[in-house]
Amino acid sequence: MSTIRLTVAQAIVKYLSVQYTVRDGAEHRLFAGMFGIFGHGNVTGIGQALEEHGSDLTYYRPQNEQAMVHTAAAYARMKNRLSTFACTSSVGPGATNMLTGAALATVNRLPVLLLPGDIFANRIPHPVLQQLEYPLSQDMSVNDAFRPVSKYWDRIYRPEQLISSLPEAMRVLTDPAETGAVTICLPEDVQTEAFDFPTAMFEKRTWKIRRTLPPDDDLDAAAQAIANASNLIIVAGGGVIYSEATNELDTLTTTFGIPVAETQAGKGALPWNHAWNAGPIGAAGGSAANTLAADADLVIAVGTRLADFTTASKSAFQHPDVAFIGLNVGSMDAHKLGAMPLIGDAKATLIALTSRLEALNAAHRPADTVTTLKVEWDAAVDKLVNPNTGGPFSQPQVIGVVNQAAGPEDVVVCAAGGMPGDLLKLWRSLSPKGYHVEYGYSCMGYEIAGGLGVKMAAPDRNVFVMVGDGSYLMMHTEIVTSIQEGVKLIIVLVDNSGFRCIRELQTQSGTQSFGNDLLYRDDATNRLTGAPVPIDFAANARSLGAVTFTATNPAELANALAQAKAETRTTLINCPVQSQERMRGFGSWWDVPVAEVSDQAAVNAARRAYEKDRQKQRFFV
Ligand SMILES: Cc1ncc(C[n+]2csc(CCOP(=O)(O)OP(=O)(O)O)c2C)c(N)n1
Ligand SMILES: [Mg+2]
Question: How many Cβ atoms are within 10 Å of 73's Cβ, its own excluded?
C-alpha cells in the first residue's frame, strides 16, 4: 500500500482540500477554506500544516472564534448546505468561544466543521495553560461541552484514528438529515505527530447529496389526504430553499390552489407577490397566513422545524380536526405535531406528490379567500413601511427604505432583537436567497459575522446587515475581517438605546422597565435608571475601517444607502430611531410565562391574561 508520512494536522489539511459534494450533477468544494485563530493549542499543529500544505485550503483570520463559526454557518446556508468552512481554534477559551456557534449551526441544521485544539493526549505537562482539571477523570476537557451541540463528536488520540474519523465527519456534514456542527477535538501533541497515512486518503472524494423519497404507500396516503381536505395550508420552511424546491412548490401550490405560509428560514420560497403566498405565519406572522392557519384542516409542513414562533406556541392551528403532513428530510422534524411523516427530500417529494394528485384528479381550489386576505395584508404592510406617513423615524420605516434600495437578488441579514419579527412581516423577498434571518438560535452577534459568510458565498449581491444596538455591541469586530478581506457589507444599525424587544416583553408581563435600557446607574435608587449612556456607533465603526453615515429620517437613509451601494468598502449607516412604538401582532401569540405570584397588581393581571391565552394552546398527538 502506498503511504505518505504526514502529521495529523497536515493529513487533515490535505484531506479537507480534496472533499467535494455533488447534487443533481453539480459539484462543489465542501470546504471553501479554513477560519482560525491560533494559540499554543493549534499554531504548531494545524497552523503549521496550513502554512505548508494549505495552498488548496485558503486560510482566513477572524477576530473572534464564535464569529468565525457564524460566518461558516451563514456561508453554508447561503450555499444550500453544499459547501462550508472548517474552523480551527486553540485549547480552552478559543475552543469554548466556538460553542455558541456550534449550537447555532446544529439548531439551524447547517454544516460546520470545528477543530478545537485539546489538552495533551500524553498528559505529561498537565495541567497546561487553560486546562480545566476534572477530579473524577483525566479523560475530560472543556471540549466535552461540544458533545450535546454536535451531530458528530470525536477526539483523536492516535494519528491512525483519522482514517475512520474523517470520513464519518464528512458523512454527517453532507447528510441533509443529520447535518449540523461536527467537532473533531485535536490534542495539541497529537496534531504534530506523524503517521504513514494511506495515499488513497488524499485522493479527491465526492459526497453525493441524495434526493431521497418517502415510500410509495406514504406518498399515496398523503396525496389522498390532500385531495380530501377542505382547508389546506402549506408551511414552507428553510428545507424548501436548501433543497432548491421552490419551483416544485410553485407548481404544487398553483396547480391545486394551496396557500403557502412562510417561516423565517423559508421566507422567499415563493416571491412575496406570488398569488398563493399568504405571507408569514405564527407569533411574528401576518393576518393572512394566521387566518388561514387557524381554519386549516390539513397543514402540510415542508422543510420546517415547526419551532414555537411558527406554531405560535401551538396556538396557530385551531380547527378541531386539524391534521398534519410532515415533509422533511429528517425523521424528527417529519414526525412533529403528530404528523403523517413524509421522510424525503423536499424537491423530489413535492414532484412525487404533484404527480399523485394529478392522477387522483384532485381539485384546484379557488383563490378568492387567499386573494382577499392577501390584499388586506399587503395593504397593512404598505402602511407600516411607508416613509411618507410622517411620524417619528421608526424601525418599520428603516425596513421599508432598505427594502426599496435592495435589488431583487440582494440579501438582508439579521438574527436577534425586535428586527427579525418586523422583517418577517415587512420585508418583501423576491429571491429564495434574498432573506437570511437566523431565527433558529436567534443569536445576538450573528449579524455582521453572518453577513460576512453570506457575502463570501454571494459576492455579486449587496448584503444588507440589519443589526440592533444591543447586538452590535455584543459582536461587531468582524467589520475588521470584512475590511481585511475586501468583503463589503452594508450594515444598517438601528439604535433604539437598548434591548427594546426584551423591554417590551418585560413591560407587557407587568414588570416595569428593568435592566434592558442602556442607562447610567442612579446612585439614589442603585438601579440603572439614570441618563442614557451615549455611544457613537458611527465613530466606532469608522475606527475599525468602515465608511459611515448617520441617517435620522427616511430620506437621509435612502441617500446614505445610495452612497453605501456605490462604496467599495464595508459601510455602516447608523439609524437612531425615535419611535418606541411596538408593531402590533396579527392574530398571533408567543408563550412566555409570567410570574404566578407577585405583590404587583400589573404582574398579577398579566398572569391572568397569560393563563387565558394558554387556553388557545392545542396538543397534537
Ligand atoms: C447571545 C444572546 N443573548 C441574549 C439574547 C436575548 N435577547 C434577544 S433580543 C435581545 C435584545 C437585542 O437588543 P437589540 O439588538 O438592540 O435589538 P432590539 O431589541 O432593541 O430590537 C436580547 C438580550 C439573545 N437572543 N442572544
Ligand atoms: Mg436596541
Answer: 33
Let me know the angle formed at the C-alpha of 360 by 357 and 365, rounded to the nearest 5 degrees.
60
Asked whether residue 582 carries a pLDDT value surpassing 80, the answer given is no
Rounded mean pLDDT of the chain? 97
Strand partners, 118: 187
CA atoms of 577 and 569, how far apart (whole Å): 25
Closest approach atom of ligand 1 to CA 415: 25
pLDDT surpassing 90 at residue 587: no
DSSP string, 232-268: EEEEE-HHHHHTT-HHHHHHHHHHHT--EEE-TTTTT
pLDDT of residue 15: 98
CA of 469 to the centre of ligand 2 (A): 5
Residues in the 5 Å CB sphere of ion ligand 2? 468-470, 496, 500
C-alpha cell at 203: 485522493
Torsion angle of the four alpha carbons 53, 55, 58, 61, in this order, in degrees rounded to the nearest 10: 60
Calculate helix-pair angle for 478-485, 446-457, nearest 10 degrees. 20
Determine phi and psi for 186, rounding to 5 degrees.
Answer: -125, 95
Supply the residue whose CA is at minimum distance from atom 4 of ligand 1: 444
Report how far apart the first and last C-alpha atoms of the chain are (Å, whole number): 56
What are the angstrom distances between the C-alpha of 488 and each of 189, 312, 394, 416, 455? Answer: 39, 36, 26, 22, 7
Q: What is the DSSP letter of 593?
A: -
Is 443's C-beta closer than 6 angstroms to any atom of ligand 1? yes
Q: In what order do the strands lie in the sheet with 112-118?
A: 59-60, 31-36, 84-89, 112-118, 181-187, 152-155
| pLDDT tens, residue by residue, 443-458 | 999 999 999 999 999 9
Residue 363 has a pLDDT of: 92
What is the spatial distance between Cα 576 and Cα 582, in angstroms, rounded to a whole number?
16
Query: Residues 6 or more apart from 593 whose CB is under 8 A from it?
Result: 610
Using the predicted structure, report yes or no on whether residue 580 has a pLDDT greater than 80. no
DSSP state of 541: H
The tens digit of pLDDT for each residue in 425-441 reads: 999 999 999 999 999 99
pLDDT of residue 388 exceeding 90:
no
Using most ligand atoms within 8 A of CB, pick from 444, 497, 579 the residue to mutate for ligand 1.
444
Calpha distance 357→136 (Å, rounded): 60
Find the 282 Cα to ligand 2 centroid distance in Å: 23
Three-state DSSP class for residue 39:
coil
User: Of 182, 175, 27, 67, nearest to 114 (Cα)?
Assistant: 182
> Residue 411 burial (CB < 10 Å; 0-12/13-18/19+)?
buried
Q: In what order do the strands lie in the sheet with 298-302?
A: 277-280, 260-262, 232-236, 298-302, 323-328, 340-343
What single-letter DSSP state applies at residue 282? S
Cβ of 444 closer than 6 Å to ligand 1, yes or no, is: yes
Whole-structure pTM value? 0.98
Between CA 463 and CA 572 the distance in angstroms is 12
Helices 419-426, 368-385: axis angle to 10 degrees equals 130
CA-based diameter of the chain, in Å? 79
Ligand 1 atom nearest residue 443's Cα: 26
Q: What is the full DSSP assignment across 329-387?
A: SSHHHHTGGG-EEEES-HHHHHHHHHHHHHHTTPPPPPSHHHHHHHHHHHHHHHHHH-G
